Amino acid sequence: CSLFLPLWAGVPDPERARTLVESSLKTRYLLPYGIPLSQPESRGQDTLPGMHTGASSALMPWNHLLGEGLLRYGFRAEAARLVSGLLDASVSSLKAHRSFRQYYHAQTGLAAGERGHLHGLPPVGLFLKTIGICRLSPSEIILDGFNPFPGTIIVKYRKISIACSADKTEISLAGGQTVTVDHPGLHRVMLP
Fold first, then answer.
1. Rounded Cα gap, residues 26 and 70, in angstroms
2. Most CB atoms closer than 10 Å: which of 9, 50, 91, 177?
3. How far apart are CA 162 and CA 136, in angstroms?
């Protein structure tokens, strides 16, 4: 999966990035629960504690970077698919083991490795970027794009509520003011 890191770094031109994503990442690597370290058909994988091998695992830090690369080049639907799988795997682990685990099998979502490992935490930052929230701070909110997931997702931060939907983002401030962004592109909302 490290061969896709140029997407995160912004190295390929848009046409080369599209070819890379369409012909290789989507067809051979993007599995139901993330992008594994190597192709699923690879041989000679090292065994991990648990039920699967290291090379078939979707590691959260690597997948986070690859998801940011997908967003950089406008592949929001693919980033949403990736985030959904990663969140499903980490939530399943939390339900089954009452902890996050170090590794998640990219095909089955089964958790393995150390309990409570930081690499098993769900990619919240990538999730926020995927729904269009690039920056969320006490002084400003930076939005880019709209929510590709079904329905409206509401994010609450301090006394601010951000409702992200497929065609607009509404920000409700503590004083009762509302800001609506309904045009695609990068938008900066300064907070009082």
1. 11
2. 50
3. 10
In 3D space, the residue among 18, 28, 118, 127 whose CA is nearest the CA of residue 82 turns out to be: 127
Cα separations in angstroms, 87 against 25, 90, 126, 174 = 19, 5, 11, 30
Query: Would you call 80 helix, strand, or coil by DSSP?
Result: helix
DSSP one-letter code for 26: I
Q: Over the stretch 16-49, which tens digit does the pLDDT of each residue have? A: 999 999 999 999 999 999 999 887 665 444 555 5
CA dist., res. 82 & res. 9, Å (int):
18
User: C-alpha distances in angstroms, 180 versus 130, 169, 173, 189?
Assistant: 18, 6, 11, 10
Interacting residues of 107 by C-beta distance below 8 A, sequence separation 6+? 31, 32, 33, 36, 40, 56
The pTM (predicted TM-score) of the whole model is 0.89
Quote the DSSP letter at residue 128: H
